[in-house]
Design a protein that fits this description.
By secondary structure, the protein is α/β, with parallel strands linked by helices. The chain folds into 2 domains: 176 residues, Rossmann fold; 183 residues, Dihydrodipicolinate Reductase, domain 2, CATH 3.30.360.10. The protein contains 13 helices and 18 strands. α1 packs across α11. The longest helix is centred in the last third of the chain and has 18 residues.
């Protein structure tokens, strides 16, 4: 395939991993306001960098003007507006920002501009959707469960957690109500609810709770029981509930000595230094997807488990690998004409074709991200 011109918006941990992977076969321009992050990428062959504030009017349209495809890797609070601007620029896109707004609200505009926008192209949502999308095309799925988490290898008091993607998006995960499906009916519960303990080989016991990770699956899949749960070290949920119930995650402004501030901004400023991975600090990603139902009248159950670890040689975090390489697999499918249709395209739709599902799994395996089938 001829080398394409790809613009990656965002040069954080995941955006950088995406740029490096795509640069092996394409011309990549990485864009971010953080010049320190860009300097690191300038050392890589095939990557050009551009410093820009993507929040400024007209900047996105100008930057993507001559691109063949755009990748969105900005924090969630910026994602919706960035995707909308790319649509208006008439460019195809693969996005991992996981913005809180409904992506399908952009579908009509994307179709009018004759562009394809693959959203939620990460690990979960992302690979989780891909598994369900594939099996739902070949069997009657009755139950879908996904457990997923990214954690530091070394547990340090008091948080035993490090932000392996945008920290403000991590806080959003703790306050956004969890939506899932039970007995064919939609259910909404607070985040951090219905805690349970699970054992994972090679890791031990982890704690799981309801999170709002189904996203597009709530509209695209008619499955009677669907739920996603976030995994953390045991005990995490208690201190998070204390912070949340005390108002530390609130977006509502309060008056402090005559100044209006949002508690979440103060919390973020205090926590981010403590949550930041130190240079060389290792993380891992764990995921278990369970899909059960009927195929040709017979009961079937499929389980996939991922345990991925920090890449010591390339110094890339596991969450950046598992999220970023799913994204780049979808980028290559789009460039090869394997993503059909225009509008907002969730990963589960791409995976309905067996050749696409197989390609994604093989692409990840070649990069040592291995989803192991089991019981």
């Amino acid at each position: 395939m001829k080398r394409k011109n790809i613009v990656v918006l965002g040069a954080g941990m995941v955006g950088s991993a995406i740029a490096k992977d795509l640069a092996t076969n394409h011309e990549v321009t990485s864009v971010d306001v953080n010049e320190e992050a860009l300097r690191e990428l300038e050392k890589e062959d095939g990557i050009r960098t551009r410093s820009a504030d993507l929040s400024e009017p007209g900047v996105v349209e100008k930057i993507v003007k001559n691109s063949d495809l755009v990748v969105g890797a900005v924090p969630g609070f910026m994602g919706y507006r960035i995707v909308q601007q790319v649509i208006r620029s008439g460019k195809n896109m693969v996005d991992i920002s996981f913005f809180p707004q409904d992506p399908f609200s952009l579908d009509e505009e994307a179709r009018k501009n004759n562009v394809s926008i693959v959203v939620d192209a990460g690990v979960a949502p992302g690979m989780s959707n891909i598994f369900l999308g594939y099996y739902a095309a070949y069997m009657e799925v009755e139950k879908y469960t996904c457990y997923v988490g990214g954690l530091p290898v070394i547990r340090e008091w008091p948080f035993e957690y490090k932000a392996v993607f945008s920290p403000i998006d991590v806080i959003e995960e703790y306050i956004r109500p969890a939506r899932y499906v039970e007995n064919g009916k939609p259910v909404v519960k607070p985040a951090l609810s219905d805690t349970e303990l699970l054992d994972f080989q090679g890791l031990g016991t982890l704690e799981a709770w309801n999170s709002d990770g189904l996203r597009t699956l709530l509209k695209t899949m008619k499955v009677p029981d669907m739920i996603e749960k976030t995994l953390r070290y045991p005990g995490t949920v208690e201190y998070l509930k204390v912070l949340r119930e005390s108002g530390f995650f609130s977006y509502d402004e309060i008056d402090v000595n005559g100044k209006k501030i949002r508690p979440v901004d103060v919390t973020a400023r205090l926590l981010f230094p403590k949550w930041k991975l130190k240079p060389g600090e290792e993380d891992f990603t764990v995921m278990r997807v369970e899909i059960s139902g009927k195929q040709n009248g017979r009961k079937k159950k499929f389980v996939y488990t991922l345990l991925d670890r920090y890449d010591r040689e390339k110094k890339i975090t596991s969450m950046a690998r598992t999220t970023g390489y799913t994204c780049t697999a979808l980028v290559n499918l789009m460039l090869n004409g394997k993503v059909e249709g225009t509008g907002i395209i969730p990963p589960e739709t791409v995976a309905e074709k067996e050749e696409n599902f197989t390609f994604i799994l093989q692409y990840l395996k070649e990069r040592n991200v291995d989803y192991v089938p089991g019981n």
